[in-house]
């Protein structure tokens, strides 16, 4: 089903500190009940063993497709941060609704700036207010965070 090392998972299911990298893509824009749209793109999430099933379910319910699940050891986790450049994202915070959005990933800050106006226009068309924008190099764990 998903390209994951089942033997490794089975032998380490008690390791609370085990972390996995889930790569997923969203090919279709989906309209949520609150009227906001999840954008297309690829996302990489670092999740603990305890959260992996919940994240897989959340991704698939949101229309995402899992590309891979890779266990991260301390050595390859450090390697990722030291040798793999983090992607660039457009971070948008709105006051109404109170949300934090990440759009991307992009290969450069210039590419992110090229697309940011389209995201702002979409949010304004959906009624968002108090829009603040930043271009950041990061790896967000969640693409949309809504304060209640």
Short structural description:
This protein has helices at residues 6-11, 52-61, 74-83, 109-125, and strands spanning 19-26, 30-31, 37-38, 41-48, 64-72, 88-94, 99-106, 132-137, 144-146. The chain is α+β, with helices and mostly antiparallel strands.
Textual characterization of the structure:
The chain is of the alpha+beta class. Helix content is 29%, strand content 36%. The chain contains four helices and nine strands; from the N terminus they run αββββαβαββαββ. The protein has helices at 6-11, 52-61, 74-83, 109-125; strands at 19-26, 30-31, 37-38, 41-48, 64-72, 88-94, 99-106, 132-137, 144-146. Strand 2 and strand 3 form a beta hairpin. The longest helix is centred in the C-terminal third of the chain and has 17 residues, at 109-125. The protein is globular and about 40 Å long.
Question: Which SSEs are present, and which pair or pack?
Answer:
Blueprint: H1 6-11, E1 19-26, E2 30-31, E3 37-38, E4 41-48, H2 52-61, E5 64-72, H3 74-83, E6 88-94, E7 99-106, H4 109-125, E8 132-137, E9 144-146
Antiparallel strand pairs: 1-4, 1-5, 2-3, 6-7, 6-8, 7-9
- Strand proportion, as a percent range, falls in 35-45%
Q: Note the overall shape.
A: globular
Intertermini distance: 35 Å
Backbone CA Rg: 17 Å
Helix content: 25-40%
The number of strands is: 9
Main sheet properties = 4 strands, antiparallel
Low-confidence stretches: 1-15, 30-38
Mean of residue pLDDT?
75
**What is the N-to-C order of secondary-structure elements (H for helix, E for strand)?**
HEEEEHEHEEHEE
Helices, by number, come to 4
Strand order, sheet with most strands: 8-6-7-9
Structural class: alpha+beta
């Amino acid at each position: 089903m998903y390209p994951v090392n089942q033997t490794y998972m089975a032998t380490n299911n008690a390791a609370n500190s085990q972390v996995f990298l889930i790569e997923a893509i969203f090919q279709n824009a989906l309209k949520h009940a609150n009227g906001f749209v999840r954008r297309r793109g690829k996302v990489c999430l670092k999740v603990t063993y305890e959260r992996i099933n919940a994240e897989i379910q959340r991704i698939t319910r949101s229309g995402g497709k899992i590309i891979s699940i890779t266990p991260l050891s301390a050595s390859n986790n450090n390697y990722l941060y030291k040798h793999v450049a983090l992607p660039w994202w457009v971070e948008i915070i709105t006051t109404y609704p109170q949300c934090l959005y990440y759009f991307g990933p992009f290969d450069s800050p210039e590419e992110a700036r090229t697309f940011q106006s389209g995201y702002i226009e979409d949010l304004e068309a959906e009624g968002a207010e108090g829009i603040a924008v930043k271009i950041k190099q990061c790896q967000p764990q969640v693409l949309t965070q809504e304060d209640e």
